């Protein structure tokens, strides 16, 4: 009885403590109503505004792609840059009828310097079951063969965006089988490329916008009503844009902050009336000139990245931080200031959103239109802000020397295997950022940097494979002013032999060694000499102590040990991943949560236990008090094969795996009111599962994998009303839940590694067709090699999860 009263009292305390707190209060926010308004304006139009005047093109292309043909047809969109080719292609690609018509589909961007292997890998990731690890050692011939085999017998759609020459098409063409009315849609600036790819198929050249369409687009981008006292001046500017959508969109970004007729007239005077290309350049240049001073270097910095790059926002902001291009403001973290600056560049239509963050309208990745990137490179070269180098132009001539003496930043785009990239000696005293980006991530390269020439270097990033480990040591061992160091590979479980010299990095704020094991001796040095460190990424980081790492915000992911006791001292920790927890260390972690009151700012947490180690029954109860915790991953078993009744109530993302539950988890999980993403892997040993009415009110993405005992799944009417994506990998499941017919928002259903009998049920004419016929895209993956026991080890699956599928 005393125990019951004690629990009731504890619940009462918690209710009072957290009364009135909502998820909106704990999500990231800006410091003023003005900034909040800005964010709403930034993202309110990202999907549809740019399609003004392009609707007829979309209808035409959808009709062409849906035609039944007895051969592979290549449908092309061609025309000058800024005409809206990519926008049209995206509208077509995402069209409901297109998703319903094709068995599988993939989108990839080509760019001027095509990396054949990366393009093939990107397509394979979307149409096959192969992972990055599976494809890591494949050559071009093997990749082409695998893609041809996966696409064989399917009706597929492949979009090749921004293909520049006929040679690129000739290289990719053998990967596409002639099967079942399949289509390739490409966009290009050259009619020659379109005709070469398929002279008999349909070629669309988007028209220029009419004056009325241009004015409507400008109003949407400048955020003014169609009827306005600014209309006469606005229409004159639209006419100067010549109906080119990109020019009008960027012009709208310039005018967003201007509301007087005088300001609009001043802008109009600065716009030329020459040919289309010159007008675009004139308007793009004006958009840069109109930027506030503090945003100009941030915009130019984006030009360091390759064409068509999806740039992770977190990485970009931390690079800005490393160079002190952004500064902390009162009441806001420096990273939030950086995000606000990026939001403003997006708001001004100078930067595009790549992917959005889960549960938010803000960008997770961003990108530049190729015309904007051209502008970046031109201005960057003129102002010695940065230079893009390759092996071909790495020429230490006298003119090159003069440039290097003043150069602040450089991006080295590695193109050839085995080549050395050597900076001219004594020519780079001002260099602050150096980024090595291989055209193909499998290229091994050996950068050679001389310390005395790089004493000002603050940001250093290596992508791909360095050759060999000692070369990396030679590059970085004396760069004591570094604030950002990243050495990431497209490989697994690599060990970097840095040695004790890493202790020279006393200024380091971000250390990103994804895929890399970091041994205890190296960790000891890091924890003792890097008090400024904010973000620490690796795999199986072997920490011994963390007492001096008080500024740490990210620790991802560390091997469990006695150091866990000191987590309570890391009061700024936002993201934490711990692997290989045993009975002792998981109790230490629970004590940190319970007794110390630590980790109150934690927003992302991932825990992975050793085999047969159970999560304590009270861990979730105490975690449920962490109101800022939004993303949670638990890989390991629960006591008695049953989920705890309490989960953190504000979760938006949850991943559970290897739990061996004997009871249906859905009655507990469906009560999470804010959950948007749920992945369940090897979770449940039972045969029946039920999602009840009103359960999962906000869930958008559900993935159920390797649940090989599940036979019957019931989805009641009213369950998961917002579900848009679902993946099923349950070998014994007899049928699609009949309740799927009520999931009217469902856009994509993936059937993964299921028996042929199940696949037949969801096809047209099958027993479950009426249940799923409203779903635009049903994708069946019916080829997969059996997963070996070694491949199924927890640490491998956990690693896949951390770095490929669900990195947050």
From TrEMBL:
Q: Where is the Disease resistance protein winged helix domain?
A: 304-376
What InterPro entries does its record include?
A: Apaf_helical, Disease_R_plants, LRR_dom_sf, LRR_R13L4/SHOC2-like, NB-ARC, P-loop_NTPase, WH-like_DNA-bd_sf, WHD_DRP
**Domain (NB-ARC): residue spans on this chain:** 55-222
Where are the coiled-coil regions?
Answer: none
Q: Give the matching Pfam families.
A: LRR_14, NB-ARC, WHD_DRP
Q: Does this UniProt record's set of keywords contain Repeat? A: yes
UniProt keyword terms in alphabetical order: Plant defense, Repeat
Q: Does the keyword Repeat apply?
A: yes
Which example biological process does GO assign this protein?
defense response to other organism
Domain named Disease resistance R13L4/SHOC-2-like LRR is located at: 451-761
Q: Which GO terms describe its molecular function?
A: ADP binding
**Protein name per Swiss-Prot or TrEMBL:** Uncharacterized protein
Name the species this protein comes from: Aquilegia coerulea
């Amino acid at each position: 009885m005393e125990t019951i009263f004690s629990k009731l009292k504890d619940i009462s305390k918690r209710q009072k403590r957290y009364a009135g707190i909502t998820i909106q209060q704990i999500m990231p926010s800006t410091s003023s109503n003005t900034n909040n308004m800005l964010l709403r304006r930034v993202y309110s139009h990202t999907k549809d505004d740019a399609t003004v005047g392009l609707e007829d093109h979309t209808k035409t292309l959808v009709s062409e792609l849906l035609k039944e043909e007895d051969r592979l047809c290549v449908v092309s969109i061609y025309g000058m840059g800024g005409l809206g080719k990519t926008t049209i292609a995206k509208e077509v690609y995402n069209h409901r009828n297109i998703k319903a018509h094709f068995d599988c589909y993939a989108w990839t961007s080509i760019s001027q310097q095509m990396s054949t292997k990366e393009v093939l890998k990107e397509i394979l990731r979307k149409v096959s079951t192969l992972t990055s690890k599976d494809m890591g050692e494949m050559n071009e011939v093997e990749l082409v063969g695998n893609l041809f085999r996966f696409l064989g017998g399917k009706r597929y759609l492949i979009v090749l965006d921004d293909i520049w020459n006929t040679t690129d098409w000739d290289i990719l063409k053998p990967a596409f089988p002639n099967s079942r009315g399949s289509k390739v849609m490409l966009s290009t600036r050259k009619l020659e490329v379109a005709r070469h790819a398929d002279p008999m198929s349909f070629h669309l050249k988007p028209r220029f916008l009419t004056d009325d369409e241009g004015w409507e687009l400008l109003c949407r981008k400048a955020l003014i009503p169609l009827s306005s006292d600014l209309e006469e001046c606005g229409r004159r500017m639209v006419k100067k844009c010549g109906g080119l959508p990109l020019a009008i969109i960027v012009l709208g970004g310039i005018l967003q902050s201007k509301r007087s007729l005088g300001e609009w007239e001043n802008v109009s005077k600065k716009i030329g009336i020459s040919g289309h290309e010159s007008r675009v350049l004139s308007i793009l240049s004006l958009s840069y000139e109109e930027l506030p001073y503090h945003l100009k270097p941030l915009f130019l910095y984006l030009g360091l990245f390759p064409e068509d790059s999806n740039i992770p926002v977190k990485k970009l902001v931390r690079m800005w931080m490393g160079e002190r291009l952004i500064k902390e403001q009162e009441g806001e973290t420096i990273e939030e200031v950086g995000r606000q600056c990026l939001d403003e560049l997006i708001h001004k239509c100078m930067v595009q959103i790549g992917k959005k963050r889960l549960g938010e309208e803000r960008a997770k990745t961003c990108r530049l239109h190729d015309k904007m990137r051209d502008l970046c490179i031109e201005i960057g070269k003129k102002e010695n802000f940065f230079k893009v180098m390759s092996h071909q132009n790495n020429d230490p001539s006298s003119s090159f020397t003069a440039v290097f003496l003043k150069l602040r930043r450089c991006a080295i785009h590695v193109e050839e295997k085995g080549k050395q990239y050597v900076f001219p000696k004594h020519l780079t005293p001002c260099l602050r950022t150096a980024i090595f980006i291989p055209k193909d991530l499998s290229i091994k390269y050996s950068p050679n940097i001389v310390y005395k020439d790089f004493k000002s270097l603050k940001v250093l990033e290596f992508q791909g494979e360095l050759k060999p480990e000692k070369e990396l040591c030679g590059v970085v061992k004396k760069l004591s002013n570094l604030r950002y160091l990243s050495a990431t590979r497209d490989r697994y479980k690599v060990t970097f032999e840095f040695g004790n010299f890493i202790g020279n990095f006393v200024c380091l704020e971000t250390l990103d060694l994804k895929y890399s094991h970091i041994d205890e001796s190296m960790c000891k040095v890091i924890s003792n000499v890097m008090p400024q460190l904010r973000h620490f990424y690796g795999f199986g980081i072997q920490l011994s102590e963390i007492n001096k790492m008080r500024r740490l915000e990210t620790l991802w992911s560390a091997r469990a040990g006695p150091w866990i006791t000191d987590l309570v001292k890391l009061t700024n920790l936002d993201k934490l991943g711990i692997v290989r927890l045993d009975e002792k260390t998981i109790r230490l972690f629970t004590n940190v949560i319970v007794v110390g009151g630590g980790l109150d700012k934690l927003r992302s947490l991932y825990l992975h236990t050793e085999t047969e180690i159970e999560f304590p029954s009270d861990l979730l109860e105490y975690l449920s008090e962490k109101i800022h915790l939004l993303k949670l991953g638990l890989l390991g078993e629960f006591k008695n094969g049953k989920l705890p009744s309490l989960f953190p109530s504000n979760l938006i993302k949850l991943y559970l795996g290897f739990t061996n539950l004997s009871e249906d988890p859905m009655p507990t999980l469906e009560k999470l009111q804010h959950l948007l993403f749920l992945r369940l892997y090897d979770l449940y040993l039972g045969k029946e599962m039920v999602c009840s009415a009103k359960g999962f009110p906000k869930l958008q993405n559900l993935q159920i994998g390797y649940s090989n005992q599940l036979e019957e799944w019931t989805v009641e009417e009213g369950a998961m009303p917002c579900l848009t994506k679902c993946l099923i990998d349950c070998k014994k499941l007899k049928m699609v839940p009949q309740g799927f017919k009520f999931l009217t928002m469902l856009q994509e259903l993936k059937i993964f590694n299921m028996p042929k009998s199940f696949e037949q049920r969801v096809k047209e004419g099958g027993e479950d067709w009426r249940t799923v016929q409203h779903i635009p895209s049903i994708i069946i993956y019916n080829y997969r090699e059996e997963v070996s026991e070694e491949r199924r080890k927890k640490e491998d699956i956990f690693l896949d999860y951390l770095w490929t599928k669900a990195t947050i």
